[in-house]
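Holo prediction. Input below; ligand is flavin-adenine dinucleotide.
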Amino acid sequence: MAVSDTPSDEQIAHFQKAATDLLGAKGFLIAPDMLAPHVKDWRGIFLGRACGLALPANTAEAASLVKLCREYRVSIVPQGGNTGLSGAATPDQSGRSVIVNMRRMNRIRSVDIANDTIMVEAGCILADIQNAANEADRFFPLSLAAEGSCQIGGNLSTNAGGINVLKYGNARDLTLGLEVVLPDGSVLDDLDTLRKDNTGYDLKQLFIGAEGTLGLITAATLKLFPALRARATALVALAGIDAAPKLLTRCRAATADQLISFELLPRFGLELAQRHFSARNPLETAADWCLLIEAATPASDFDITLALERSLGEALEAGEIADGLLAESETQRRELWRLREAMVEAQPREGAGIKHDIAVPVAAIPDFVRSAGAALAALDPTLRPLIFGHVGDGNLHFNILQPVGIEAAAFQSRTTEINLIVHDKVAAHRGSISAEHGIGQLRRAELARLKSPVALAAMRQIKHTLDPDNLFNPGKVI
Ligand code: FAD
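Structure of the complex:
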């Protein structure tokens, strides 16, 4: 019988009994209050139903659970910390899915100093991996605001980015090997620690960024890097958005490519940080656009602060920046980063938001920002764009905040027309409608509209080959 056939209530009851026998009372929960936090997404946009919450304790249990799900035709929604921003870890409304949360599989299996690798289970919290790396005098660079609760399995499945992509790449670039339970219940042991392995297709890449649609990641081998010895952090007022790509090239060269963050902060965002959290912009010059720049080095004999200071001095002379400030202490550095965080946290206090997570080539950023901004203003001048993010990677969070005096529901009813404007501008600049947050449920229709038919067909073929019964995370991505 095909898994796509919906299981009856009786079959679901049998499945619940069999899953409890397999995983024990601690490993399989059905109480509504236990399920409640897992059936809605972090932003509260999506709400689903599930017939259980499975918490496998090891890979063998996870594999047996997948086989059981096949037998009873119960679909699987893999879940990590449930911090995803695209509704990819939220079940649908059928109540015929089981959520498989990996939080009990949270062991750091090993740290290999000579090889500069760490082997971790999928349920490890990202911050715990960073700490384990620190304890070994190494650096694990994946870093994002949700790092205290997101899990590495979720990070890999969303190919997470964050604040250090500029130098170290995203989750994909940091991965050497994976262990995955495939939809047929077999375990793919691809936990390579090798940096060179050309024995056919690089299968792990299929599961990274697949948002749980192709299998369940149970463990990973990740790259470590030398510990950072010194940091230099600056806030600068840009002369204009056109200067951003030029300044990026300048700072990269001057710091011997040790630039790790290059974050765009708009005037509106800094105003919100001040309004809601009293986080004050210390620059005297009011500019439409600021940049938070950080360089860091593992070399103890390289004066990274001097290198950044010099390049900012040259940028001032070249008219690329109007003002700038280098953090002189760790406290001041934290205050500068607090501006960035407060700006993000302030958004819900301003009402509803229609959010986009886009990427365009770095050189195209000024033109994209201008043309998308103009198109939105032409639609409705009361819309409030808040455009910020990882400009060094070409990744902007292009959020539109609820206009003052307009009801949230009325504003949100315009989501589709606003998405069309922003995403069409992205497409016109050969960009991506999801730089780091994934497709999930949120952007599925837009993916179907904008991704090439050839690419979509290839994705569907891969999905069908690995998961012919559509067992894993149905209704997500494609
Ligand atoms: P979940 O949300 O639980 O799941 C995400 C996806 O991964 C789902 O499709 C799920 O099915 C799948 N999945 C989870 N675990 C597994 C597994 N073991 N095997 C197979 N599939 C699995 N993201 C960024 O990239 N950069 C940022 O800077 C960033 N900042 C954020 C800031 C805040 C405040 C918040 C709330 C989120 C932010 N995010 C960011 C988004 C989010 O934190 C990331 O997408 C993160 O990688 C999700 O991890 P998670 O463990 O919470 O996964």
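The mean pLDDT is 96. That is the main takeaway for now.
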